[in-house]
Amino acid sequence: MRNFDWREAPQAEFAVIGDPVEHSLSPKMHAAAFAHLKLPYRYSAIRVNGGEVAEALEHLAAKGYKGINVTLPHKAEAYAWAKETDSLSKRIGACNTLSLSDRKALNTDGPGLMDTLKPLGLKVGATVLLLGAGGAARAAAFALADAGFDLRIFNRTPEKAEQMIRVLQIKADLAQVPDPASTQLIINATSAGQQGETPRMLWERAPRDAIAYDLSYAEGPTPFLNEAKSRGLRTMDGLALLVAQGARSLEWWLGIEAPREAMLRAIR
Ligand code: NDP
C-alpha cells in the first residue's frame, strides 16, 4: 500500500497516521468496510514524523479529513492534540482514534481487546499473564484489570511494568519471571516479534489448556505463537484485535455497525 508524507496527503476522508505506516493493514480493512457499506469514502496511509502530529492533523482537517486512526509512535501526541477525550484515553494518556472537526479522541484498543476475548469463554477472575509494558500493554492491562481478570504482568525491563501498574492504578501482580503457571491466557503485548525474536517465557510451566494470544500479527505465525503451538496450546494472532479496534473506530465516526466479517476477510 502506497503511503504519503502528510504534506502530500491525497484527497480522502479517513486515514491512519504513523511512522512507519506502509505496512499497515488499516487502509485495506477500512476500504473493504466502506465498499461493503456502499459508502464513497476513501482511506489512506499517511506518514508523520514525531513532533509534527499536531501540524499534520491541522493540515488533514483543513483538507477535509473526517477521522484518523493513530498507530505507533503517535498515540500520546495525538492524545495531547485532542480537546475532548474518553476515560480510557485519559487514563493511559494515549488514543488511537480521532474525529478531526471537533478534536475528539477515543481509545478503542482496550475495548477492542475485550471484544476479542469474548468468544474464548474465559470466566471473570481468570488468571492472565501479560507480557510487555508499552502502549499496547497499557491499554490491555487497564481493560483486563477493569474487567476483573487476575492480572500478572512481566516485562523485560521490570521498572517499566512497575511504573505502568502504579500510573494506571490497577490491581496486578508484578512478575519477576515470565511464569504462566495456572494461567488461562498468555498475552504477548511486546514488539519482540518485529525483530524476529520471541519474548522470554517459561513455556514448560504453561497449563495445557492455556491460550496464547499474540497482539502482533505477521504473514505467518509469529515466533511466540510457533512456540506455543509446538507445546499444544491454542493460539490467536493480532488480526482479530486489528479488526475489533478498527470496527469500533468506524462505528464511532459513522454511527453505524461495522461489517467485521468483511473487514477480517480483507486482511486474512
Ligand atoms: P511499544 O514499543 O510501546 O512497547 C514494546 C514492548 O515490547 C515493551 O514492553 C518492550 O520491553 C517489549 N520488547 C521489545 N522487544 C522485546 C524483546 N526482544 N523481548 C522482550 N520484550 C521486548 O510497542 P506497542 O506496545 O505499541 O506494541 C507492541 C506490539 O503490539 C507490537 O507488535 C504491535 O504491532 C502490537 N499491536 C497490535 C495491535 C493490533 O491491532 N493487533 C494494536 C497495537 C499494538 P522493554 O520495556 O523492556 O523495552
Q: In brief, what are we looking at here?
A:
The chain is of the alpha/beta class. The protein has helices at 26-36, 53-62, 75-81, 87-92, 109-117, 135-146, 158-168, 223-230, 239-254, 260-267, and strands spanning 3-5, 14-18, 43-47, 67-70, 84-85, 97-99, 104-106, 127-131, 150-154, 173-174, 185-188, 211-214, 234-236.
Number of H- or I-type helical stretches? 10
Mean pLDDT: 96
Query: Which shape, going by the Cα principal axes?
Result: globular
SSE topology string: EEHEHEHEHEEHEHEHEEEHEHH
Count the beta strands.
Answer: 13
The set of bound ligands, ions and cofactors reads: NADPH dihydro-nicotinamide-adenine-dinucleotide phosphate
> What is Rg?
18 Å
Oligomeric state as shown: single chain
How much helix, percentage-wise, in residues? 25-40%
Q: Order of strands across the biggest sheet?
A: 1-3-2-4-6-7-5
Task: Using brief descriptors, characterize the structure shown.
single chain, 268 residues, alpha/beta, seven-stranded mixed β-sheet, six-stranded parallel β-sheet, 37% helix, 18% strand, globular, binds NADPH dihydro-nicotinamide-adenine-dinucleotide phosphate
Secondary structure elements and pairings:
Blueprint: E1 3-5, E2 14-18, H1 26-36, E3 43-47, H2 53-62, E4 67-70, H3 75-81, E5 84-85, H4 87-92, E6 97-99, E7 104-106, H5 109-117, E8 127-131, H6 135-146, E9 150-154, H7 158-168, E10 173-174, E11 185-188, E12 211-214, H8 223-230, E13 234-236, H9 239-254, H10 260-267
Parallel strand pairs: 1-3, 2-3, 2-4, 5-7, 8-9, 8-11, 9-10, 11-12, 12-13
Antiparallel strand pairs: 4-6, 6-7
Helix pairs in contact: 1-10, 5-6, 5-9, 9-10
